[in-house]
């Protein structure tokens, strides 16, 4: 079986119980929930049956244990998640606004996540990997950017593959060096998983089909364009598959893209055909939005398949 590895931030999310703006008065919260975009991805990939490992860092605290326990229970190899003796595990307080946007109060960069580096354990995990999943917003330190480039180069030299989910809010691109880091990742991406306007990263056009054609001509094997409640579309230059959304009662949309990616990559690396990868990834995305907590809706393969079969949508 292919070994799928991801790297980046690990944090807990603590969610306000009421909708509103910011955190300026006392309020009640529910949490901690395990979180972090690549953490959600790797949990979902493992739950789909993938052979997985994760490279990150947590603090020597309960927030770290919440994540380690979740990933261990899912069967993820956590040997390359370092435990920092000083810094706490990353955290994000989150509150939904009435319009569905979110306010955050968080510390990730100056948490244990910011100390993620190429330890001997990480080197070992990368050396055994056949696939690297990169998340754009995870590249917030020079060290993580360098590790990503090194691991991707080595894995590809061995015939392995790289997937890339930008997961970037526009304001993040102002981070010094991030734009260049993203362009570098795009240059070694085999499977691109953009959401909405992220499809235009690295190309000079405002036409989505043209952007996708450009990415494929530049060497990508496939592009899967996620479009939230409008579903997702797969392109590989010869095939275009459109997957309408599965019916879902949206409770908490955080993590839908990561669950979609985790399911897609696990199936793609297991040799499933693109239509089945797309169908089950969309089902995983729909299931993800129906539970409160970023990875509470990341279901196991049997549940994802049963949901997709029970809610067959016309293509
Ligand atoms: P994230 O907020 O995790 O970054 P994203 O923007 O990367 O998400 P989305 O496009 O929101 O990714 O979601 C990924 C996929 O999950 C969609 O393409 C769709 O198939 C499915 N999905 C997301 N939201 C819904 C929904 N409300 N109903 C049904 N399916 C959904
Ligand atoms: Mg996303």
What does this structure look like?
- The protein has helices spanning 37-47, 62-74, 120-127, 142-157, 178-187, 208-217, 256-269, 274-289, 301-310, and strands spanning 3-7, 11-16, 29-35, 51-59, 81-84, 90-96, 102-107, 131-135, 161-165, 191-192, 222-226, 232-235, 240-243.
- The chain is α/β, with parallel strands linked by helices and 315 residues long.
- It is globular and about 55 Å long.
- It is 34% helix and 22% strand.
- α4 links the parallel β8 (131-135) and β9 (161-165).
- 50% of the residues are buried.
- The protein has a single domain, classed as Ribokinase (UDP-N-acetylmuramoyl-L-alanine:D-glutamate ligase, 3-Layer(aba) Sandwich).
- α8 crosses α9 (301-310).
- It is built from nine helices and 13 strands.
- It has a nine-stranded mixed sheet, with helices on both faces. The protein has a four-stranded mixed sheet with strand order 3-2-6-7.
- It binds adenosine-5'-triphosphate (ATP) and magnesium ion (MG).
- The site of adenosine-5'-triphosphate has 23 residues, from α7 and α8.
Short overview:
The chain is of the alpha/beta class. The chain has helices spanning 37-47, 62-74, 120-127, 142-157, 178-187, 208-217, 256-269, 274-289, 301-310, and strands at residues 3-7, 11-16, 29-35, 51-59, 81-84, 90-96, 102-107, 131-135, 161-165, 191-192, 222-226, 232-235, 240-243. Helices cover 34% and strands 22% of the residues.
Question: What percent of residues adopt helix (DSSP H or I)?
Answer: 25-40%
Could you give the count of β-strands? 13
What's the CATH H-level homologous superfamily? Ribokinase
> What small molecules does this complex bind?
adenosine-5'-triphosphate, magnesium ion
CATH topology term = UDP-N-acetylmuramoyl-L-alanine:D-glutamate ligase
CATH architecture: 3-Layer(aba) Sandwich
**What is the makeup of the main sheet?**
9 strands, mixed
Oligomeric description of these chains: single chain
Q: Beta-strand level of the residues, as a percent range?
A: 15-25%
CATH top level is Alpha Beta
Structural class: alpha/beta
H/E topology pattern: EEEHEHEEEHEHEHEHEEEHHH
Low-pLDDT windows of residues: none
């Amino acid at each position: 079986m292919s070994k799928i590895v991801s790297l980046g931030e690990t944090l807990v999310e603590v969610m306000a119980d009421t909708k509103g703006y910011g955190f300026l008065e006392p309020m009640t919260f529910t949490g901690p929930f395990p979180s972090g975009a690549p953490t959600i991805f790797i949990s979902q990939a493992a739950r789909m049956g993938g052979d997985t490992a994760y490279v990150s860092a947590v603090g020597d605290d309960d927030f770290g244990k919440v994540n380690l326990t979740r990933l261990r229970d899912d069967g993820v190899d956590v040997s390359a998640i370092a435990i920092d003796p000083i810094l706490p595990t990353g955290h994000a307080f989150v509150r939904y606004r009435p319009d569905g946007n979110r306010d955050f109060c968080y510390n990730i960069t100056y948490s244990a996540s910011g100390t993620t580096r190429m330890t001997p354990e990480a080197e070992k995990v990368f050396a055994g990997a056949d696939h690297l999943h990169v998340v754009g917003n995870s590249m917030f330190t020079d060290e993580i950017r360098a590790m990503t480039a090194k691991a991707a180069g080595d894995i590809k030299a061995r015939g392995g593959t790289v997937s890339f989910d930008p997961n970037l809010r526009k304001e993040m691109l102002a981070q010094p060096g991030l734009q260049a880091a993203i362009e570098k990742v795009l240059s070694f991406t085999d499977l691109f998983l953009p959401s909405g306007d992220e499809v235009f990263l690295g190309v000079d056009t405002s036409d989505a089909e043209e952007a996708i054609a450009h990415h494929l001509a530049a060497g990508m094997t496939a592009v899967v364009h996620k479009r939230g409640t409008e579903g997702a579309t797969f392109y590989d230059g010869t095939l275009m598959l459109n997957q309408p959304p599965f019916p879902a009662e949206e409770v908490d949309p955080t993590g839908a893209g990561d669950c979609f990616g985790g399911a897609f990559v696990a199936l793609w690396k297991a040799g499933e055909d693109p239509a089945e990868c797309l169908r089950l990834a969309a089902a995983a995305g729909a299931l993800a939005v129906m539970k409160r907590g970023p990875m509470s809706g990341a279901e196991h393969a049997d549940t994802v398949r049963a949901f997709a079969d029970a809610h067959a949508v016309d293509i």
